[in-house]
Structures are given as C-alpha cells and as structure tokens.
C-alpha cells in the first residue's frame, strides 16, 4: 500500500497532524519550494494500516517518513542529515520536486 501511495509523486511525507517533527520536516521541504504530498495518518481512513506498514519497514515511531523520487529517505534524522550535508536540495531537484 505504501509503495502505491508514493508512486508518481516527487515527494511524499507520512505524517501526523499533531507531531512537531512532522511539522518541522514538512516546513523544511516546503521551504525549498516543493509541494509534497502529505498523508496525515491520524486523518485518513486507512491511516492505521499505513502506520503498521511503516512499522514493518522499521520506522518506530512511524512518522514522519519521507520518500523523495519514490525512494525511501527515512525519518527526521535522515532528512536533517541530508540538509546539513547540502544534499537535500539536489535530491529534490533530481526528483522533479523543485526547479532552480
């Protein structure tokens, strides 16, 4: 199910509307000019099922989880590491999420 949800989308963030780290990651990626597809797991009908799949993929807690160019990037630590290394923007460009 998760793979279907990220197909053909440059940036996908699995989030919870009440999670401060989810908000931080959404703000960071949007700050580059990207328009990520965001699935708020506490607000979508199959959110619990998606969350179980993310747990099976090894993400505990299960949000935020970021896919860029249909590639699993990971959680906030992985995204922030890419940002600190100046690798996040090039990844977004390659995925077609931003144009610079």
TrEMBL record:
PROSITE patterns: GLUTAREDOXIN_2
Keywords in alphabetical order: Cytoplasm, Redox-active center
Classification via InterPro entries: GlrX-like_pln_2, Glutaredoxin, Thioredoxin-like_sf
Pfam families reported for this sequence: Glutaredoxin
All copies of domain Glutaredoxin, residue ranges: 11-73
Signal peptide: none
UniProt-annotated location(s): Cytoplasm
Family membership noted in the UniProt record: Belongs to the glutaredoxin family. CC-type subfamily.
NCBIfam families: GlrX-like_plant
Protein name in the entry: Glutaredoxin domain-containing protein
Naturally occurring in which organism (per UniProt): Hibiscus sabdariffa
Lineage per the UniProt record: Eukaryota, Viridiplantae, Streptophyta, Embryophyta, Tracheophyta
């Amino acid at each position: 199910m998760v793979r279907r949800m990220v197909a053909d989308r440059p940036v996908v963030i699995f989030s919870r509307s009440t999670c401060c780290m989810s908000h931080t990651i959404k703000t960071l990626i949007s700050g580059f000019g990207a328009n990520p597809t965001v699935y708020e797991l506490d607000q979508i009908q199959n959110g619990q099922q998606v969350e179980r799949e993310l747990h099976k993929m090894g993400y505990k807690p299960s949000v935020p989880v970021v896919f860029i160019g249909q590639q699993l990037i990971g959680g906030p630590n992985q995204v922030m590491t890419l940002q600190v290394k100046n690798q996040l923007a090039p990844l977004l460009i390659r995925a077609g999420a931003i144009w610079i």
